Amino acid sequence: xKDIIKKLDLTEYxxxxxxxxxxKKSIILEGxxxxxxKLIEELSKFDINAPKEVANLDNSLVYIQKQGILxxxxxxxxxxxxxxxxxxxxxxxxxxxxxxxxKIIIPSDILxxxxYFDSKGNLKEGVDEDYxxxxxxxxxxxxxxxQALYKVINSSKLRPYLVDSQVHLVNDQEAILVRxxxxxxxxxxxxxxxNSGFFYVVPHNISxxxxxxxxxxxxxxxxxxxFCKQISSMFEKHLMFLxxxxxxFDRVDHYQARLxxxxxxxxxFLLPSRNNSCKLVEFRHPALHGAKPIxxxxxxxxxxxxxxxxxxxxxxxxxxxxxxxxxxxxLPYNAHKSSQIGSFKNIxxxxxxxxxxxxxxxxxxxxxxEFSTLFSKKNAIVGVDEIELGTDSDEAASLxxxxxxxxxxxxxxxxITTHHKRLAALLASNSDVELVAALYDEKxxxxxxxxxxxxxxxxxxxxxxxxxxxxxxxxKLAKKVYGEDKDKLNxxxxxSSELEREYKQKIEKLDKELEDTQRIKKSLKEQKENLDELVxxxxxxxxxxxxxxxxxxxxxxxxxxxxxxxRHLNVAHTKASSIKTQKITEIEELKVGDRVKxxxxxxxxxxxxxxxxxxxxxxxxxxxVPLKDLSRSGNMPKPTIKPKTxxxxxxxxxxxxxxxxHGQRVDEALENLDKFLSDALIAGFDEVLVYHGIGTxxxxxxxxxxLDKHPKIRSYEDAHxxxxxxxxxxxxx
Length: 733
Fold this sequence. Notes:
Blueprint: H1 2-7, H2 11-18, H3 33-43, H4 58-65, H5 72-88, H6 95-103, H7 108-111, H8 113-116, H9 129-153, E1 168-170, E2 173-178, E3 188-193, E4 199-203, H10 207-237, H11 239-264, E5 278-283, E6 294-298, E7 302-307, H12 313-328, E8 346-350, H13 363-374, E9 380-384, H14 393-409, E10 413-417, H15 421-427, E11 433-441, E12 446-453, H16 461-467, H17 472-482, H18 487-560, H19 563-577, E13 595-598, E14 601-609, E15 612-617, E16 622-626, E17 631-632, E18 657-660, H20 666-683, E19 687-691, H21 698-709, E20 715-718, E21 728-732
Parallel strand pairs: 7-10, 7-11, 8-9, 9-10, 18-19
Antiparallel strand pairs: 1-2, 2-4, 3-4, 5-6, 11-12, 13-14, 13-17, 14-15, 15-16, 19-21, 20-21
């Protein structure tokens, strides 16, 4: 979808439409397009407000299905949907619109939600007595704190240090602003410092009041949790209705967005017809500003657009396909109401040069690949820009004539732009082909951006070249050359082929030399790595021998109790410690995809984060290692069959290990979780248990997001209630 929208220059137009949705979604309106059109038409007769912004509730519905407890904010999002349908039910709709709205019957339990919340999503007074009492106590507590602060402010001792006589809210705390030296007259805690060097302080004498407020807030959270449990339990009973109403809300949101979009610039809805005939009348492409309107009859199977360069041929092609696509998804656009648009299952655009060095494919070969897919399509409309691109014009004319005629038999509509006069001439006699010429103003030597059906247009290459600054003597000479014998062209082609063969031979020679250089470089690098390993091996051997000798010396000293021996032993230890063997390393710029070596393990860098790198070694294991410990390795793993190795890992009798993330910050918790999973994989565990708690849900959401992306996790699910329930995850590795 995104690809065809981009090719047709509709990206900005579609994005401006999507901004009218109350929540992000696809432009596709599923279901019967004729019914949707009828409902939109009936809805347009009423002046209805657009729905307010609503969150995506798919995850909330899954949470309800798993007997989870929703937050107050999530419950309010459902309430906004219910309120909007209650608002719609106030209108005196008729016809299909009335039938649809009448079918939406809201259960009485869910109707009560409208009385629970105010317009800002806060619980109304009277919904819960305990909540109201705590809320009043919090308000009184705030007043007491404010009064205590004003009492401090009015103190004669503190007045010389006061910057102003106001109570400031800093970091969610009531504070006063004072100058330096205040601690001689008042005991207080500094909570912030102003840009002018003054201090925001909270006096110690109101700490008890603040503690009381903190206790009240905790109690309030307990009451809200109890309330959310009750609502979540009720939602579980009405889960099917909530799924239904959530889907219907998206439907009405689609309708409203389309209506507001149509009204914004006097756009029309054009319902696709079933006979696949197209006739555009005064169509203006959304990407163009102040463009001439296009009118074209597309009742035949093929439209072949020829004529002047830069005369609007490609935009004509894009305009036809754009009108078909916008009508397919019932999006309004600027065109006369008398326009007719066909209904097509597939909309394809062959516009770009498919040449790719990476895939070793030429322009013409790429075009053939794209054309080959068309023979398996049905009920399709295809736009092909510059059909002659990439090959000999005479040969291509015969080939494309046959291809186009075969596609016509498959009931595929095709729009073609071309400078290919031979192909246009071959198809001119076909009754299923409509010829369209882009017109040129010869007097003023410029395109008119107008089109004439039923004729082949001239490309006006010489006139266009002259208009863009090519000297007249060169144009005159070019016209003379154009009429000379074709043998010169064949001679040029032959010479070009010879030069191409010489070029290929030189490329092959250079590639061979480059391959030899790379092989020598890899060999030298391997030798260097082997020498490094030898140095480390010898160092380890020396340290072991020294350690053994030192242990023997200790035994001898202990037996003889010789102070002189101890002294000599300490001297020997100092000298041995001073021995340094340093690995020779090069400072290398490593990136994702490079093959590297870490100690005795070799692999490929998967990702880099700061000074840490994630690598996947040749055995398939992923490791997190310091970037500085990696060196580049050009050696690929040998394609030999490795002998089977049996590794025995002792596991706990319970069959799993545990990790507790309670009280940790998200970044800290994810780092610990990553290390824990790596250790579990290395140890051979196939199932682990992770506690993340419920709390605000932030850590739980981050944990699930991390687990979804981890490549070594087969699945995970909420733990059994006895093992933590929704506050824990059982992870299968």
